[in-house]
Structure formats: C-alpha cells, structure tokens
Amino acid sequence: MSYPSKYRYTREHEWIEIDGSHGKIGITDYAQNSLGDIVFVDLPKIGSIIEKGKTFGSVESVKAVSDLYAPVTGTVVEVNQELATAPEKINTDAHTSWILKVDIADPAQVSELLSADAYDAFVSEETH
Amino acid sequence: MVDFGGWDMPVEYSGLIAEHMAVRTGVGVFDVSHMGDIQLRGPGSLAAVQKISMNDASKLALGQAHYSAMLYPNGTFVDDVIVHKFSDNDYLLVINAGTREKDVNWVRQNVGAMHSVHVSDYSDFYTQLAIQGPKAEATLQKLTDTDLSGIRNYWFAWGKVCGLYNTLIARTGYTGEDGFEIYVPSDEQTSVRVWNEVLEAGAEFGILPCGLGARNTLRLESAMALYGHEISDEINVLEAGLDRYAKFEKGDFIGRDALLAVKAAGGPKRKLVGLEMIERGIARDGYAIRTLDGLEIGRVASGSPAPFLKRNIALAHLPPEYQEPGSAVAVEIRGTLVKAVVVPLPFYKRPKKPAVQ
C-alpha cells in the first residue's frame, strides 16, 4: 500500500491532508489493517478543540480499541457523519475516509509531521 | 500472531467478522491444538474423576462427554474441562492451554495418592481441529466413513479420518454452533495434511480458517465461559452461574463443601449476567459497571461487538439487585457512563434442526 505523498503522517498512524488553513484527518491503511474490522468511530463534536499529540477520539474494531491522536492543534469544523453508520468505510479505503476537518491553529506544526516516505519507512521498521 | 499460553496463534486469518459469520452460517475450522489433554486410566479412574471434577462422571455412557470443572477447595476454578468416557477405566479431560501446566500438576497432586489410577499428559501428542458450523457435518463427512449423523451432541466416536484409523471424532465445540472436534497425531506433516483436506472438503460451503478472535466472539455470543474472565481462581461456580454442572448429590468432590456453604448462606453475592448496550458504545474487558447514579457494582468479564447479532454485548458478575433481565446499568467507557440493560443468556442460541425422518 502506498501512502499519498500530499498527506502528512503521525507515528500514531493518523494522516492529515492540508488545504489552506484546514486539515482533513484520518487513519492510515496500516492502522486499519492492524485493527481489523472497524465497527465504531467515536467522533468529537463540531467546535471542540483538538490538541496536537493528545487523544481526540477512538476507532474500535471487533477486537480492539485504538485512540486517535491529533496531528495538529485546531478547532473541529466538520465531522464525517457517514462513519457513524458505516465505520467499515475506513477498512475499504482508509486514505479517503476522513474522520474530521480542523481549522489549524498553528501551521508551523505541520512541518513537524512525517512525509509519506518517512512514514512508510517508520511502519516497515515497526513491522520487522 | 499473538502469544497465547506459549503458542503462536493467529488472531484472524481473513478477517474476524467474515470468520465469525462463516461459522454461524456455513463452516469454519480452528486449530485448537493448544488445548491440553489429560488421560486418567486404571480401575480407579472413575473415582479420581469424581473427586476432581464437579459433574457426575458415573452418569456418562461409553462414548459420551460432558462439560465440567475442576475446583479448588473454596469452590473457585482450577479450570473448566470436557470429560470424555473412553471406557470404564479410561477418561480423557480436555483442558485449556493457558492453565495446562497448573492443571496437570493439580490433577497429579490430587489424584496421586489414590489407588489404581494413572495420569498422563498427552497434550503434545494431539493436533486438535474444531470444524464448526451448520455445514460442519457435511464437510467432515467427506473425510470419514463414520456416519456422523449418528453422533449426538457431546458424544464421540472413533473412526477413520483422512485415512487415519481410530481418530477421536467428538461432537463438541466452543462456538455455540453444531460441529466436531477431531484429534489427530501432532506431527507436522499429518497435521498440515488434515488441515488442508478439511479446507478442501469445506470449500464448496465457503469454509474459512478461523483465529482466536472469532473463537472469542463466537463463544461470547453463546455465553460460554473463558478462564480468566467468567471463571477464575477468584470466581466460584455459583457466581459463574455454572452450578447446573455441579452434581452435589453424587457425593464428595473438591470444592463441594464450600459451594454448599455459600448456598446455605443465601447464595452468591454476585452472579454472571448478560448485558447489552442500549446507548452507543462498546463494553470491553475490565471496564467498570456502575448504577445509573455512578456507584460501581462490577467489572466487565468479557465485552465485545457481537458480529452475528450486531449488538454490543458483555458478560459481568453483578449483585442480586441487577440480575433480572431489564435491569438498567451503565458501563464506564473512557470516563463516560453509557447505558446498558441486563438480558437473558445466552445471547445467541442456534436454531433447532428440523426433525429428521
């Protein structure tokens, strides 16, 4: 699986797609694959603040719970309601199934995230 | 792969939900070779089984098996066990992997001084495969000339399977579904060959190899106990709700006096119940269960989404006030109280087969 080069990544397996001052956040294909069948996504409320490195929700498969970590600090402006009823979309296509959109507080934080190549190298190390 | 009692075992092969559904609607196969096998032989074997196991083995016919448990003197669990009667002088106890060494030592310790009984640990000699689901019989029938329809639930036969003579074929399992467990020689070549032949035989029914993940969700839907969760050395038989398998009238067995004392004192202070989440949220093992006012009344023994029922379910030991179906409780999920209701057990019961003419 290739990781989209225009996204940035965390070591906790989230991706963020930057569009101006907004960012769309999801989890990586590696993450969905290790979780297995996803049955539940705990979405934050619109207007709530997420803080870089802190948990803002969780994704659950049948067998496990996985916390979601914010790649950047920001205000939630939209959540993907489709995932409330069809969380398995993340298994089908993790890299287009965004979980939420944030208004990014500090664009400088984005540069601290991993590139697609760096993330790829990170997960191949983790699996070996 | 995860370490499970010292065994490298896959949690899932193709996907937990698909594997779970294959067993409920078609057929699945599990490698359960991690289960332990203790054999008690000799003229004293029945007396030994009667002492260490709470069910009444004197009621077993040749070729019959039953669910039972081995208990500590205080009525809590050494392990649960399936007892098979091979002959009047020969019984097989199938035990759990995680507790194998402890179980074998415990059996030796408690049987050791008895007359005319020999304890053997044959765990390493068998590869145990569980073929489970409504199509299990049709799958396995292709690999044996033994008439499987003649083996009733919790009975067994010896037959030729995949060319292997005198293979133990038991109509048992841990999924809540019809199915068989077969015991074949544990050398790698034979094990792999039988595994592949089972997969081939079940291909027309969409057979899937199933991992520990589906094994857990299947047994949970059927409300079957797992050691360390619903039963343990801190939970007694009455609390686990398994007293229907404790035959007090058969005479003495280890743990009997303690259980009778608990009964005489008014019954256990907590008992296993089924819970179903009514608000959004999944109860997981160990989560606190509270009253709607927030008072802690227990912990989740096992909790998970139920793939076939498509509900979020849990098992927990709760006080008498919360044992009636319909009782409202809350599960604390990452700091939030999420409502659940007590429901009758089991969550899932397989449909009865239509009567065969």
Please provide a written account of the structure.
The complex is a heterodimer of chains A (128) and B (357). Chain A contains four helices and nine strands; from the N terminus they run βββαβββββααβα. Chain A is an alpha+beta fold and 128 residues long. Chain A has a single domain (7-127), classed as RNA polymerase II/Efflux pump adaptor protein, barrel-sandwich hybrid domain (OB fold (Dihydrolipoamide Acetyltransferase, E2P)). In chain A, a hairpin with a 2-residue loop joins strand 2 and strand 3. Chain A is globular, with a radius of gyration of 13 Å. The termini of chain B are far apart. Chain B has a domain at 27-206: Gyrase A, domain 2 (2-Layer Sandwich), CATH 3.30.1360.120. The model of chain B has no long low-confidence stretch (mean pLDDT 95). The interface between A and B is medium-sized, with 10 and 17 residues.
Short description:
The complex is a heterodimer of chains A (128) and B (357). Chain A is an alpha+beta fold.
In quaternary terms, these chains amount to: heterodimer
Spans of chain B of 5+ residues with little confidence (pLDDT < 50)?
none
- Percent strand of chain B: 25-35%
**CATH architectural group of chain A:** Beta Barrel
CATH homology superfamily of the domain at 27-206 in chain B: Probable tRNA modification gtpase trme, domain 1
Output the number of helix runs of chain B: 7
Order of helices and strands of chain A: EEEHEEEEEHHEH
Count of extended strands of chain B = 19
Low confidence ranges of chain A: none
- Total individual domains of chain A: 1
Biggest interface goes to: A-B, 10 and 17 residues
The CATH class name of the domain at 27-206 in chain B reads Alpha Beta
Q: Shape of chain A, please?
A: globular
Number of strands of chain A: 9
CATH class designation of chain A: Mainly Beta
